[in-house]
Amino acid sequence: MNSKRSRRGLALWAGALAAYAFLYLPLLIVIVYSFNDSRLNAEWVGFTWHWYAVLLHDQDMLGAAGNSLLIATVASLSATVLGTMAGIAMHRYGMKVLTFMVMTPVAMPEILLGVSLLLFFIQVLNLTLGMISVMLAHITFSIGFVAVVVRASLGGLDESIFEAARDLGATPWKIFRYITFPLILPAVVAGALMAFTLSLDDFVITFFTAGVGVSTLPLRIYSMIKIAVTPEVNAVSTLLMLLTLTIMIVASRIAPNILRWRA
Amino acid sequence: MDKTNKMFYPARLAKWAVSGPPFIFLLVFFAAPALIMVLASFRYPGEFGGLAPVYPSDPNALHGLTLETYGFFFSDFIYTEIFIKSFMVAFATTLICLAVAYPLALLISRSEKKRRDLMVLLVVLPFASSFLIRIYAWMILLGPQAALSLLVNSILNLFGAGPVQLLFSPFAVLVALVYVHLPFMVLPLYTNLEKHDPALLDAAQDLGANAWQRFWRVTFPLSLPGIFSGSVLVFIPVLGMFAIPELLGGTGDMLIGNLIKEQFLVTRDWPFGSTLSIMLTLMVLACVWLAAKLGGRRRRHE
Fold first, then answer.
1. CA closest to A219 among chain B residues
2. CATH number of residue B132's parent domain
3. Residue B123: which residues within 8 A CB-CB, separation 6 or more?
């Protein structure tokens, strides 16, 4: 009986290990080949920093990186403010219409938000596509992610604290400033970091709302890999992964529940 | 009484101060564009792409609203065919994700408590790489000179079959779709499995159920809500995918997403692009409705 159970456990472990290998092996290969002294991503030739040097002299890539960071900063800060408000409103007042508008952009295929914003920017606002349109689009899809994290954090709080504060005569602003906000701050920061990485990595919605005027890192990577596979892409991917990985680990330290997704 | 009256006004003010800004922002940048897209699907395409004006200066030009694009969609079976194909691809992706994710989620939920968070983190971390990087990884892995292609072709050679190309094939598209969406299946499954009471399994064992029966009659039925929410999270994004078929698929691997992208950026027939988007939206809504209905029926049974 016991050996049978351990054999079953072993099978489960083997399956899980295969799944983890499936998740990590492809990314590992991208990283390893970024140090490969060969133009082809096919076999290991020797170690080199060459592709990182190429990257540092690629003006288009550096420009795209600058745009990406600027867009991600503006979009994540705005989405954090709006998303936190939305999270509080959804938790406190229900507000079905608001909840619908917050959650739908997260749940729908990204391409739908992308093309509808493209239509809206050009047809209604008569806006030239560029930095501003990309920022507005990124805020729109990030609000939901921040709101979900904030709402989950509010849901875990003890309501009697607020009742006590009200009974003691605190105004809504005082309750927010001295009780609610400090308690949900970790969720707000984690939500902000999440919005930042989402904006930094977004391809689909940026693709439709950037026009020809502005390039971001994912757009630049896309146009490169459409033509050919080159180790320079491996190098920029490795750096981008390192950055988002750091941000995600920090976020998960600040608010461990962020991993629970829809907790 | 006096006190509650005084509280009433600031409380209502607070409600609007908190919900107003995100409400207005989303009304403008989510609801309005969605509405514009619905309207655009009933309009004529412009002479140079985009939309024709509803009230043009030349009264003989095509103007007003029309059902033409919807008629066009059903006039050629190829569009319906692409929709059916996308549906099948999304369905296959969901099933494969479920098959890969289930053992993993089960193992995590039955591990020691302190190890679980790390194991979940390891599932989420590949998210830390851009969607495009994850596609690019498969372009390398499936490339003609990569070890995987060489291995497959040398095995095929033993059986006398000709060499195959892994990249730019439906196989590459499916692998990448599963790869990109796998965490969406693992997380809801794990969240569900983690909540199961182990006493139920002990009880089943005491009553003589073997391992298979314990899984099939206890764990699996209880995990159905997790399976449904995971399936929705995988199925819906796959329906609208265009980058994976474009970068990893061949010319025949077009899905709805590619069709929509082409109408907006290449052909520039915006009314037809909008029509396709509306059809996709309806398909997504139908799937969500179905999943909610199936999930709801289960809950009533319990």
1. B132
2. 1.10.3720.10
3. A23, B104, B108, B182, B183, B186, B187, B190
* B182 close contact with A: CB closer than 8 A: yes
Question: Residue A185's Cα: distance from chain center in Å?
Answer: 19
CB contact under 8 A, B130 and A29: no
Phi-psi region of B169 (alpha: psi -120 to 50; beta: other; left: phi over 0): beta
The secondary element (H helix, E strand) that includes residue A193 is: helix A181-201
Q: How many domains does chain B divide into? A: 1
Q: Report pLDDT digits (tens) over B138-187.
A: 888 887 777 777 777 778 778 877 777 777 888 889 999 999 999 889 98
Among chain A residues, CA nearest to B125: A245
Check CB contact under 8 Å for B191 and A262.
Answer: yes
Q: Which residues of chain B neighbour A122 with C-beta distances below 8 Å?
A: 50
DSSP-derived secondary structure letter, B223 = H
| Chain A residues within 8 A of B240 when measuring between CB atoms | 108-112
CB atoms within 10 A of CB A9: 12
The model's pTM:
0.85
Assess if residue B218 is contained within a domain.
Answer: yes
- The values of phi and psi at residue A35, to 5°, are -105, 15
Strand partners, B49: B47
B227 in contact with chain A, both atoms CB, cutoff 8 A: no
Question: Which residue, A71, A68, A116, A106, is CA-closest to A86?
Answer: A106
Shortest Cα–Cα distance, B179 to chain A (Å)? 7
Residues of B in contact with A40 (CB under 8 A): 145
Q: Chain A contact for B188, CB < 8 A?
A: yes
B43 found inside a domain: no
Whether residue B148 lies inside any domain: the answer is: yes
Count CB atoms within 10 A of the CB of residue B209. 16
Contacts of B139 in chain A (CB under 8 A): 225, 229
Helix axes B32-40, B270-301, angle to 10 degrees: 120
| B49: helix, strand or coil | strand
Both tokens of B161, joined, read: 């079959």
Identify whether the C-beta of residue A33 lies closer than 8 Å to the C-beta of residue A240.
no
Residue B136: name the closest of A123, A237, A40 by CA: A237
Q: Cβ of B51 under 8 Å from any chain A Cβ?
A: yes
**Unique residue bearing structure tokens 């709402």:** A151
Nearest CA in chain A to B22: A82
Collect all residues of chain A within an 8 Å Cβ-Cβ radius of residue B145: 40, 42-43
Interface of B with A in 138-157 (CB under 8 A): 138-141, 143, 145-146
Tens digits of residue pLDDT in B12-60: 777 788 888 999 999 999 989 999 888 888 877 776 666 766 666 665 6
ipTM of this complex prediction, to 2 decimal places = 0.84
The domain A58-260 is placed in CATH, from the list 1.10.3720.10, 3.30.420.10, 3.40.50.300, 3.30.470.30, at 1.10.3720.10
